[in-house]
């Protein structure tokens, strides 16, 4: 699909919405509509705002319009032997760069390389006054002004319409292998968190189907050498395994009544909650397919200092993200108001109050 | 809300502070205030009304409540090593030093994190984590003295940013006291937190949004091996191109630093690091990781550097020589301080491809102004530190130095970079902020500040310029042939 800059048209639509008092439902490729709370408002289609604006592999930075298909960005980087190191899931063929950053989605490499937010360097956006603003930039280090571009990551479009995003990119590892070990959840947690203090080139670790999976990436020699030290069986279809995990194509994700995303400290022992578990991110991000009442799940997770997102299924008009404390919610409401005073962008998509 | 202004009755303020804090935690005598009159940028000096040195979080809360009630501005200060005047006191304000909140609260090796108070020194965290094989990655040159609270407020970098990121990439959670005295937990001990990413917003906010009273940092495993290669070049531009070639080969060095002739010679006199004095530029390229990977990468990097025309490529013979190579680099600022009565450190970041153009222009201006420049460059991430040498005792020389510096920063913006990579805006770069941002963007920053601190009591007047200031500045400096901030009236 052709590259097109529709910034001005989008700005006019926002200004019109402000005039008419209309609320907007910002849409890219529509692949993330299942996330968050149910959307309300007139669709604002950013999907046609696409194209890579600047990419120089030597600078390790790519800038692209937010409607650019994620697959296109990744294919362009791959031609130069580079990648989005946060390994974003697509959740469908229509995934866009903007939606990925707005939802701050990161894959198995996240604990070892960083998140979508970590790789965000700058963005251009339309705020809730209809102004086009630029924050951050195309350089790695930039402390001029508040970091509003990283604030956009994970804000689910509630703070503004992102127009383009600059991301840090990294070289693809020269080689990767996946090792598996038969064990139970408790042993896997111990193994995975124990590796946090070891200088091995581990860049993914999960527990699924009574197997602990480790991915090693780096130079050929480094990977072979570490493989000899760590033992385990090599999984021939390793790359495909991590892809199906990342894209939620494993049975656990698709068959789930309700799928919860549970964030805890990685060394946290298995939680006493009924359902099917998959522990990713070295134990720090745990997926639970369960019929237990959400309140019960939140209460158990709160005991270990974690938080819960009702990721798929269930009531999408209720509490999806972990409820915030009253003072924190009030602060977030004021922040929302500072960027979107009339509350026109994706109202209620994150929390009913913002 | 009390309407007593501190200016009219500082004694009321002093008495109220003394009622909240132990006697030695409130300083009001001029001789006690002097040590706090500036941070690392000593051309700006100002005595505050009072200095407070709280020992507990509750005391910080009580101080903010009092200042809020009396409408007295509050400036937070860590170790005072900042280079942009961010911790410069205000004449009508209270300076809040976090030096006494200096305890390491918890090293959680199983989860690779540490919880510390803001006054803990950057290096002390790595020292405390070392027995577990862990360390805290960001390492600003001032790491033996600078505090972690200040690092968060400035989003400090260091020489290992390209691979390991800035402060914002290496912290998980902070506790912050709002101007109303409320204690808020921002972020989480988990890899992300619900709601907006306030942790990113707080990092680098220069004390304008809240007072940071506790930080949980991420710890990393100490690499199995680190090795550094030194390469000499007879031309700065060749050295710059070699940096791009290393990265194009798919290698991300742990550190990639460049120094030019004047910086090399100053550092060599100071640290005796064995740098080649006849070189126009040197690169220090550090590789870390597993033993096998480092060996492989060292070989590749040596080949690339030679192919790029290095006149000499030297791998540190042992750990002692590696440390010595770095000692030279890390002491470059004080080393330059010895060869000139004063120096002014710039902190722009540029896309790396612009390096030859920017260096040529700096060198041209250096001749025009008659002010020598030593260049120290975090080459891997494009962060440039030109040090302008001057003598503040010569009439007019500081003003000319500042003008020269502003030209450099404007050039950084022009080529797609930024006016500050890691030192912050503080007091120093308020005018150049007007070059980098439009009025609508500055207004947005002010609106964000208002959401946290509606009365503007936290470090007011720093980091984000008022539109009026920009209008005055813009009236003097017409940028790209167009008047900046044309919507404002001139006066």
Architecture blueprint of SSEs:
The complex is a heterodimer of chains A (354) and B (491).
Chain A: H1 7-20, E1 24-27, E2 42-45, E3 52-56, E4 61-65, H2 70-79, E5 82-83, H3 97-102, H4 110-113, H5 116-119, E6 120-126, E7 132-136, H6 148-152, E8 161-168, E9 170-171, E10 175-182, H7 185-194, E11 202-208, E12 211-218, H8 220-230, E13 233-234, H9 238-246, H10 251-254, E14 259-263, E15 276-280, E16 285-289, H11 294-303, E17 307-312, H12 326-339
Parallel strand pairs in A: 1-2
Antiparallel strand pairs in A: 3-4, 4-8, 5-9, 6-7, 6-8, 10-12, 10-13, 11-12, 14-16, 14-17, 15-16
Chain B: H1 10-20, E1 26-27, H2 30-33, E2 50-52, H3 57-70, E3 74-77, E4 94-97, E5 104-108, E6 113-116, H4 122-129, E7 134-135, H5 148-154, H6 161-164, E8 171-177, E9 183-187, H7 198-202, E10 211-218, E11 220-221, E12 225-233, H8 236-248, E13 255-260, H9 261-271, E14 281-289, H10 291-307, E15 312-315, H11 319-330, H12 332-339, E16 342-345, H13 355-369, E17 373-378, E18 383-390, H14 397-414, H15 430-436, H16 439-452, H17 467-476
Parallel strand pairs in B: 2-4, 3-4
Antiparallel strand pairs in B: 1-2, 5-6, 6-10, 7-11, 8-9, 8-10, 12-14, 12-15, 13-14, 13-17, 16-18, 17-18
Tell me the strand percentage band of chain B: 15-25%
Distance between the termini of chain A: 35 Å
Give the total of domains of chain A.
3
What's the CATH topology name of the largest domain in chain B? Uridine Diphospho-n-acetylenolpyruvylglucosamine Reductase, domain 3
Assign the CATH class of the largest domain in chain A. Alpha Beta
Radius of gyration of chain B: 23 Å
The side-by-side strand order for the widest beta sheet of chain B comes to 15-12-14-13-17-18-16
Sketch the major β-sheet of chain B. Answer: 7 strands, antiparallel
> What's the pLDDT, averaged over the residues of chain B?
93
